[in-house]
Every structure is written in structure tokens, then in C-alpha cells.
Amino acid sequence: MNNKKIIFFDIDRTLYDPDIKGIPASTIEALKRLHENKDIEIAIATGRAFYMLHIIEEIKEYINIFITINGQIIIKDGMTIFRNPIDKEKVIAVVNQLNKHKMKYGFLGEFDETLNIVDDKGKKAFELVSMNLPRIDPHFYLDNDIFQMWAFCERKHHREYKDLFQDLEVVAWLGDGFDILSKGMSKKEGIKKILEMEQIPLENAYAFGDGDNDIEMLDFIPNSVAMGNASKKAKKHATYMTDDIKNDGVLKGLVSLGLLHDY
Question: What is residue 146's DSSP assignment?
Fold first, then answer.
């Protein structure tokens, strides 16, 4: 039986604190110490694309598995081993509906991202997660595979779009934005693929997260940890709780789980 352990970390407000535009020193030290243990593998499970991971550059050397775009693309040892673009006809249908509702929206490709228009609401959403504002190209989807879409409206209207796009996943993120991606795809599905490939039993897997797009991951992994700053929904789906990102939450959680033995 494989005794190796693997830990999946969300990025935004779990490893990376957008308020300080950096990774807490205690988190960097914790991941460095984990990396020194050859029986532990460190993985990322994020809604970001790989080209957006400049914000964790200082810890990338400790990580060899990246589940990106909420499970749509998986990279291991520098190689893309899985990609799942949204069906083109579904993308076109979403674009038509969003245009009908005069929505602001954007596209996430494998190597680039675009918006149909830029306004203060869109700028704020990207600033909240320290993401560079994408370039404007409303027709990007015509010649590129699309792995995820963004749209922006008041959070109270998100339910309407969940109902409208029932054959797709609609997941809220910070501010007034929401993600649109293939039905049934999530960080959980990417994690399942990695556990199977690495032949690591589920009981040897751990996960840290804070957002609504972490819920499937936190539900799936028995050893799941919600950050103290996590959303109310995310906290309900985690097995364990740790402290806030601003108060050494990752380090404290790893110690509580016995993955690190002291401060």
C-alpha cells in the first residue's frame, strides 16, 4: 500500500493573502518543511490558470502538481496531462445569453484571457484577487478553446444565472463575479485523477481551502481544512477548521493534522 501523503492547497486567501499581496512567511516556511519530507507531495488546486500563478512564484519550487481552472487543466512535472475545454456550442449559447442581458463577461483560455468590456465592477473583481486585468477581446472564444468564463453582476442575481445555465457549473467568487465551467467539473474531479495516477489512497489526502469553489474538494477529502477566513458555506463542508490566513492558519492546520510537528 502506498503510504505517501498528498496535500492540496487552494491559492487565494489560503496560501496567498491579497491584502498584503503576498504569501505569509509562516506559510512559506511550512511548505518548505513539507517539501523536505519525501513522503509528502504538495499540490495546488485553484480556479486560476497556470499563467496566473506568478503570485506564488516563491513557493513553486516546492510544488509539482497543479490542478488549474477548477480542474479543467492539470499539469504535472511541467507537462499538461489533462485538459477539458467547454463545448463550443455551449460557449456560444452562454455568450448569446450574456449579450442579451447586457452582461460584462470574459474568457479563460489555456494561455490567455480576455474580457468583452472593462468597467469599474470588473476592475474591482480582479483587484480583489490580485489578478491582472485581461485585455479586451469579445471574440476570443471563436478561435480558442475556452476552459472557463467569468461574468459580473450583483451577487443577488447569481441564482438567476445558475437557473439559466443548468447544463453548466456556475460558481461565485470574490466580489460580484461568478465562474461558468463544464458541468460536473471541479477541483474534486482533478484531485480524483491525481490520486488515481499517484496511487495514493483517499485517507492519505489532505486539502486546505476557503472559498465556494473549494466545497466539492472539502467534501470529497476526509482530511479537509477550512481557513478561519473561509466563506460560511465552505466552513460547513470541511472536517476541520484552522485559523485565519493572517494568523498562521496554514501552519497551524498542518501542525494540528500532524503533518508538521512544531512551530
Answer: -
142 with 159, same domain: the answer is: yes
CA atoms within 13 A on the CB side of 260: 19
Whether the model pTM is above 0.85: yes
Closest to 256 (Cα-Cα) out of 220, 229, 227: 227
Instruction: Note whether 178 and 203 are same-domain residues.
Output: no
CB 140 within 8 Å of CB 107: yes
Query: How many structural domains is the chain composed of?
Result: 2
Domain that holds residue 158: 88-182
pLDDT in tens, 146-184: 999 988 887 788 888 888 899 998 887 766 778 898 988
| Nearby residues of 100 by Cβ (< 8 Å), 6 or more positions away | none
CA distance 67 to 195: 12
- Which residue is associated with the grid cell 442575481? 157
Identify the sign of the CA torsion 178, 179, 185, 187.
negative
- The helices-and-strands tally (H runs, E runs) of the chain is 8, 14
* Residues 244 and 17: beta-carbon distance below 8 Å: no
Q: Which CATH number goes with the domain that contains 169?
A: 3.30.1240.10
**Helical (H) or strand (E) element with 218:** helix 215-220
Last residue of some domain: 147, 182, 217? 182
For residue 7, give the H/E element and its range. Answer: strand 5-9
Q: What confidence category does residue 129 fall into, taking pLDDT thresholds of 50, 70 and 90?
A: low
What's the CATH code of the domain at 15? 3.40.50.1000
Average pLDDT value for the chain: 92
Is residue 71 over pLDDT 80?
Answer: yes
Residue 261 lies in a domain: no
